[in-house]
Amino acid sequence: MSVKPILIEPNKLLRKISKPVKSVGDEERRLMDDMLDTMYAAPGIGLAAIQIGVPKRIIVMDISREENKKEPRYFVNPIIKNKNNETSKYEEGCLSVPDQFAEIERPNECEVEYLDYNGKKQLLKADGLLATCIQHEMDHLEGILFIDYLSKLKKSMIIKKLSKIKSNRIIV
Ligand code: GNR
Ligand code: NI
């Protein structure tokens, strides 16, 4: 298990569409372990594989608040089966868009079908933060970031800031 560097926008890889996983084997489980370590270290409540440069349709998540009650969740090849027509706004952030936050409106409930850590098919009904986070992560699989929902001006200001921060870094 190891902590990997998280890619920061602007980065072409973050715009790639991730590929479905053929089967959940040891290689995928190793990746999920690394993703979870990376997410906890950040710290964040979710992470898509592409954020560490791997274009596979894999997401890890833990929205539990307590430090000593970890509730890791693993989603392989997730598909949204149902989205509520009702929406809610949530202040979102993203580990690939550090220190930037914005209210994003999304369906407040969704149903997602996926394979778990052991490759078993699961169906989950999510609401609240879990629903928000699943949709945020699933956007990553399509190369979409939450700043894409902002006005052109806000988005370009954020990208400009991030470019500046990145130019002072060794690791991109
Ligand atoms: O850590 C994260 N927090 C968060 C807060 C509100 C909505 C979505 C998120 S996901 C984010 C981690 C991340 O970037 N996942 O891709
Ligand atoms: Ni994100």
Describe the structure in your own words.
By secondary structure, this protein is of the alpha+beta class. It has a single domain (12-168), classed as Peptide Deformylase (Alpha-Beta Complex). Helix content is 27%, strand content 30%. It is built from three helices and seven strands; from the N terminus they run αβββββββαα. The strands form two sheets. A five-stranded antiparallel sheet has the order 1-2-3-6-7. The protein has a two-stranded antiparallel ribbon with strand order 4-5. Strand 4 (87-94) and strand 5 (97-107) form a beta hairpin. Ligand GNR binds at residues 44-48, 51, 90, 92-96, 132-133, 136-137, 140.
Task: Describe, in short, the structure shown.
With 172 residues, this protein is α+β, with helices and mostly antiparallel strands. The protein contains three helices and seven strands, in the order αβββββββαα.
Based on helices, strands and strand pairing, what is the structural class? Answer: alpha+beta
- As residue ranges, the low-confidence spans are none
Bound molecules: ligand GNR, nickel (II) ion
CATH class assignment: Alpha Beta
Superfamily at the CATH H level?
Answer: Peptide deformylase
- In CATH, the architecture is Alpha-Beta Complex
Assess the beta-strand content as a share of residues: 25-35%
Lateral arrangement of strands in the main beta sheet? 1-2-3-6-7
Mean pLDDT score:
96
Radius of gyration over all CA atoms, rounded? 16 Å
Give the N-to-C terminal Cα separation: 22 Å
Pattern of helices and strands: HEEEEEEEHH
- Please give the number of β-strands: 7
Largest sheet: 5 strands, antiparallel
The backbone outline, from C-alpha atoms, is globular
- What's the CATH topology name? Peptide Deformylase
